[in-house]
Design brief:
By secondary structure, this protein is an alpha/beta fold. The protein is built from seven helices and 19 strands. Helix 4 packs across helix 7 and helix 5 packs parallel to helix 6. The radius of gyration is 23 Å and the shape is globular.
Length: 368
Amino acid sequence: MKAAEESITLLKNNDQILPMAKDKKILVTGPNANSMRTLNGGWSYSWQGDKADQYAQAYNTILEAFVQKAGADHVVYEAGVTYKEGGAYWEENEPEIQKAVDAAKNVDIIVACVGENSYCETPGNLVDLTLSRNQLALVKALAATGKPVVLVLNEGRPRIIDEIEPLVQAVVQVYLPGNYGGDALANIVYGDVNPSGKLPYTYPKYAHSLITYDYKPAENMDKMEGAYDYDAIVSVQWAFGYGLSYTTYEYSNLKVDKTSFTADDVLTFTIDVTNTGNVAGKESVLLFTSDKVATLTPDVRRLRAFEKIELAPEETKTVTLQVTGEDLAFVGYDGKWVLEAGEFGVQVGNQMMDIACSSTKKWATPNR
């Protein structure tokens, strides 16, 4: 349960629609709303995960967890779209979207649970990351009712949702959270747990616009203008390490014990993190570095250290993160590791500083 609660990631929360009050009447809908198979994914109970609903009946689906949390009188269920039992993971039955739209008339909030059925290995391959057309149509129709929509993403890989993301008030990524995923989601949605997950990848905005978080400087973000833009612009839905909370955090006082270093040094960074909101929360403190000039085009930035901390309202903690000089090396054109003399940028939260490597070192293999 705790692993699911701490990994689930809040990606959007307009007007603080979350957490929800338990007296709100909600519609739980979508093909992933009442399925243990989708929560567990492939290699769970069976190769393709298709036995999970049979063997995991003792646990709660998302629907069952919401009913348990808020009471049956406050939860309406109409799937609208369902997966084809016994079919390929991507096959869906004839949608019944109007039934879901009709069910939304007498509720306060819609919780649309979309994503993928379970899969693994070659049978789970796909050529287009776009969410299924039936599921996109379901969310569009529900959004057209005027009722606020909380979009729950239950998926083993990021499915493209750029058509529907602007239509919903909140987005929660649950990934493949396992048997306790439904309960963990209910705890977060109703505010018993403050979300603290961070994206472990860059969430793409378009099907053919995939990028890793450590992209190259030529691949700039979000400035596309015209057909002859030589900057190789890439738009993303959400960046690596992104994740919202029900509270806010302030970073300050970034320091390092030495601003000049060699490959053999250990750099000790400290930063103060304050919970500036009204509820307790957990925050992942991420330290990134950027090699400003290198003989081989460096990545824009790399994650070098991190620590997750828990803070009460108005509490401040000083976080210590260590990075070795050798960690900042890269593999050169000759296939050998090299740490080059020069400047590096360091970023923790919104705090930035520069450090400098004083001497170049090359070696055949890293001492890691």
